[in-house]
Design brief:
Blueprint (H helix, E strand, L loop, with lengths): L10 H5 L2 H7 L13 E5 L11 H19 L3 E5 L1 E2 L3 H13 L5 H4 L1 H26 L9 E2 L3 H16 L3 E11 L4 E3 L4 E17 L5 E6 L10 E4 L13 E3 L6 E6 L12 E3 L5 H10 L25 H15 L2 E14 L7 E10 L2 H10 L7 E3 L2 H11 L4 E2 L1 E2 L9 E3 L5 E3 L10 E2 L3 E2 L1 H5 L2 H4 L9 H6 L2 E7 L3 H16 L4 E7 L2 E2 L16 H8 L1 H10 L7 E2 L2 H24 L5 H12 L6 H22 L3 H28 L4 H22 L4 H8 L24 H23 L8 E7 L2 H6 L1 H8 L1 E7 L9 E5 L2 E5 L7 H26 L2 H6 L2 H30 L1
């Protein structure tokens, strides 16, 4: 039969070829419906240095959930894909590959080396797209972009030139962070501060013309090669007699002055500070105040340059060893004290960063930051989820430094500045006319072009571009909190400057994925998880379920194979439920389902369990939609899980067997229709999170057509709401559960029939559903009445709206039953205390919604009734 599912869920079989079918059907493209509200996302571009990691899988999963749901809800959705050229990382990877063949980039020259990088880009871009396909992300590939595309390059040049003409981009010599391995400048946020073992080296400098010495302490003794002064505090009585004199630098014997400056702290160390302006940010500021020379003593690769005397050519750390040994031999190394301190490391290459004086290009940040801060107080403010990350954004913008944007690389956007032999400089979007001009060798920081991503990908600087007019600003960005500074902040201030608008309405921040022990995943720990390996074993749907349900917005999540097993089991449960329904409803048409649902809604057909499950489906659709709108995917998943596993599979499906194994064919037709409808709606609710297997089952339903990708998302249908049915079946389920619990307590299996008495004001309803009670509790005799004599020796339970008694003479111990009931009484007392405390809180009662307060009052009445009934039963047992 065509709608048959295999006996066991196999993710590899289900997901094979499915993505290609979606692409062939063009279901991911915008609808083009001018009356539909646009909803757009631009993918956080992965760099082309290798495979996707779990963090990027998390980004793409959450964005795909959003866009799939919005597409199903009728929005005109655009999810634009693309990739980032990642200057430092990609150039390093390609250089490393060439090094395996003994080739250096310099051997090839700029143009041939770039040819090799473009080959790399083609290779890894293909790999990334294949991985996107395995993840199932529903992007529109007809709009795919790359940060070095001509259109994006044009946007980069335009932005650079405009900022330069406003005086907000400038070229100057300043102290910057230098990566000696990549041999390029880094911005402040590309430096990661790690705690490492180091030492304070105490060195003496001789006072010129005397036998007196001053002692300084440094963690970087090799930098004394670039010292240009020694400072003391003018209030420090110990050194007043030395101010204006000179010291002689050991080994190199250069004479430098002793000056006063507030930077010298009398309480810290010896109170004497060496000043190395070209290699320390604080020293640079001191040098600016005192007009000191700045001596760069280091080459681009971290070796000592010609200013290092006999140490020229040595690696900086090898030079440190030699200098320490030489100082010791001279008697000018006083002490070495171990210290644990934070040292800056390159975010890209991992090497220790060197503060270094260098001529670079900078973005002047004061006005850009001011505009971004002011915007957050307007209607165009970017909404952060969770809101606390707005504070993170604001704090960084309020304390931002000028941004060094030039990188000493070949791969990237070459800076649009040209120089001639006359010393003139030209900055423009195109090369200057005439001969003798040479373009600046440096390229721009990757984040400079990535900062333009939301609008440059939409066709800007052409503001009449259809996509720019239709889909910008974008709706939602999803990213990790670790790149708020790198990317999110820069997109905001650049977009405000060049489009006058925020780049997106919402920013959903997720955390980091850690291993089961809570450690950050890293190569050094060997605890990284390849998402493609997980997909190979469990399927993309299971991975996506884990990633969407792992934590609340902004929180880290621990990867666990146990959780992956649970995700697979959940999918397998739905698969088995679907097989059962399809086997029993293979010939039910869409018209038959529609007709049956109308009859159930009008109460002209169907039973209370049908009306109950449709009511619960309504509530589930409402709550899931509310949580998805708040980006609370974990809460939405929890709601779905409980409805599907507990209410639909464990209860409704079992309750329908009373009908399916019966003789009434008309009633069976109604039940089949309801089963199909609920399964259909469950698949639609699940589809944004788990697209593959939901499509597989959906296309086999006899009452559906087309792809679930563009099927309508479930809405609340008021005609299905039936509070009485909902309350009644809830009581029925509670009753059946109570009987099972009592049987378990006295070790009486369900196969053994026992008498049962139920006392309830709802006796008429319970008698009407007595066939269900009998099927699931196996009473030898069932008595249901509004009033009945309570047996003396009986196990009992109090549920909402009823009292249950099982006369189990010979199996019950009165004292144990009293002890059990007293525990139950304590439980209800605890519930009463909690509700009374909440209702006693004036702020809660005054501020909470009326329906929320009423719900608590209803709980109070229910718990009080149960408490009173249990208390009365205990008294009866004690009297007997």
């Amino acid at each position: 039969m065509t709608n048959e599912l295999t006996p066991k869920f196999n993710p590899t079989e289900v997901e094979a070829g499915r993505y290609e079918k979606w692409l062939e059907a063009d279901v991911f493209k915008p609808s083009g419906n001018p009356d539909a509200e646009p909803y757009s996302i631009v993918i956080p571009p992965p760099n082309v240095t290798g495979k996707l990691h779990l963090g990027h899988a998390w980004d793409t999963t959450l964005q795909d959930i959003i866009i799939r749901q919005k597409r199903m809800q009728g929005f005109d959705t655009l999810w634009l894909p693309g990739m980032d050229h990642a200057g430092i990382a990609t150039q390093a990877k390609v250089a490393a590959r060439l090094a395996e063949d003994g080739i250096l980039p310099q051997d090839l020259g700029r143009e041939k080396f770039l040819d090799k990088v473009w080959e790399w880009k083609g290779e890894y871009a293909t790999t990334i797209k294949e991985q996107w396909g395995k993840m199932g992300i529903s992007v529109d590939y007809s709009r795919e972009r790359f940060t070095l595309d001509e259109g994006l390059s044009q946007a980069v040049r335009k932005v650079f030139v405009q900022l330069y003409n406003k005086g907000w981009i400038y070229r100057g010599e300043k102290l910057i962070n230098w990566d000696p391995k990549a041999m390029t400048a880094l911005s402040d946020i590309e430096v990661i501060h790690k705690e490492i073992d180091g030492a304070f080296y105490h060195i003496t400098y001789q006072i010129e013309g005397s036998d007196e010495f001053v002692e300084i302490a440094t963690t970087r003794p090799e930098t004394f090669l670039g010292d240009t002064a020694v400072i003391v505090n003018e209030k420090d009585e110990r050194y007043k007699h030395l101010v204006g004199k000179n010291v002689i630098l050991p080994i190199i014997n250069r004479v430098i002055p002793i000056l006063t400056d507030d930077h010298a702290d009398m309480e810290k160390g010896t109170g004497v500070v060496k000043i190395t302006p070209a290699h320390d940010p604080n020293d640079f500021e001191v040098a600016m105040r005192h007009d000191l020379p700045m001596i760069n003593m280091m080459n681009n690769d971290g070796t000592i340059n010609e200013n290092g005397g006999k140490y020229e050519g040595l690696d900086r750390f090898e030079a440190r060893k030699q200098i320490v040994a030489d100082l010791k031999e001279l008697g000018q190394l006083v002490d070495i004290k171990p210290v644990r301190h934070e040292v800056g490391h390159s975010e890209r290459t991992g090497v220790v960063v060197e503060p270094r004086l260098s001529t670079q290009w900078f973005v002047k940040m004061d006005e850009l930051a001011k505009n971004a801060i002011a915007n957050q107080a307007t209607e165009d403010a970017v909404e952060f989820y969770p809101p606390r990350f707005n504070d993170t954004f604001m704090q960084w913008m309020e304390n931002v430094h000028d941004w060094v944007i030039s990188r000493q690389l070949w791969w990237g956007h070459q800076i649009p500045a040209w120089y001639n032999e006359a010393g003139e400089m030209y900055v423009g979007e195109e090369a200057p006319e005439g001969e003798g001009w040479t373009q600046d060798e440096d390229v721009l920081d990757t984040w400079f072009s990535s900062a333009l991503w939301p609008f440059s990908t939409m066709g800007w600087p052409d503001e009449n571009s259809a996509d720019f007019k239709r889909y910008f600003p974008t709706s939602t960005l999803v990213t990790g909190y670790d790149i708020i500074f790198f990317w999110v902040s820069r997109m905001i201030f650049q977009s405000l400057e060049f489009t006058g608008k925020s780049p997106f309405h919402n920013v959903l921040i997720h955390g980091l994925i850690r291993d089961e022990e809570g450690r950050k995943m890293s190569k050094s720990l060997g605890n990284g998880i390849d998402p493609m390996d997980v997909i190979e074993k469990y399927g993309a749907d299971a991975l996506r379920w884990f990633l969407s349900n792992g934590s609340a917005p902004g929180q880290d999540v621990r990867f666990s194979y146990d959780k992956m097993d649970a995700a697979w089991n959940f999918i397998n449960k739905i698969w088995n439920v679907s097989r059962y329904i399809l086997m029993n409803a293979e010939d039910v048409s869409a018209d038959a389902v529609s007709s049956a649902l109308t009859k159930v809604a009008n109460k002209t057909a169907g039973n209370v369990t049908d009306r109950w499950i449709l009511t619960r489906l309504n509530d589930t659709a409402r709550r899931v939609t509310e949580q998805m709108d708040k980006f609370e995917f974990g809460v939405a998943g929890h709601i779905l899980y409980n409805f599907i596993w507990d209410e639909f599979a464990n209860w409704y499906l079992e309750l329908t067997k009373e009908v399916m194994f019966g003789e009434d064919e008309a009633e069976k037709d109604i039940t089949r229709a309801v089963l199909l409808h609920v399964l259909d709606q469950v698949l639609r609710l699940l589809h944004p999170i788990m697209p593959f297997f939901t499509e597989e089952i959906f296309e086999k339903l006899p009452n559906t057509s087309g792809s679930i990708v563009v099927a309508e998302y479930p809405k609340v249908r008021p005609e299905f709401n039936d509070d009485k049915a909902s309350e009644g079946v809830a009581m029925l389920i509670e009753l059946i559960t109570a009987v099972r619990n009592i049987r378990a307590e006295v070790n009486t299996p369900l196969s053994k029939a026992v008498p049962m008495l139920i006392k309830s004001e709802h006796a008429d309803f319970l008698n009407a559903v007595s066939p269900y009670i009998s099927r699931f509790t196996n009473p030898s005799e069932l008595t249901i009445a509004k009033d009945l004599a309570v047996p003396e020796q009986a196990m009992s339970a109090v549920i909402t709206g009823a009292e249950l008694y099982l006369p189990l003479a010979g199996l019950i111990n009165i004292e144990e039953e009293i002890a059990r009931l007293e525990k139950e009484l304590a439980k209800w007392q605890k519930e009463l205390d909690l509700v009374n405390k909440k209702l006693g809180n004036e702020r809660f009662v005054a501020n909470a919604k009326a329906e929320v307060v009423q719900k608590e009052k209803d709980k109070l009445a229910d718990y009080q009734e149960k408490f009173d009934t249990v208390k009365a039963r205990i008294a009866e047992l004690k009297e007997n």
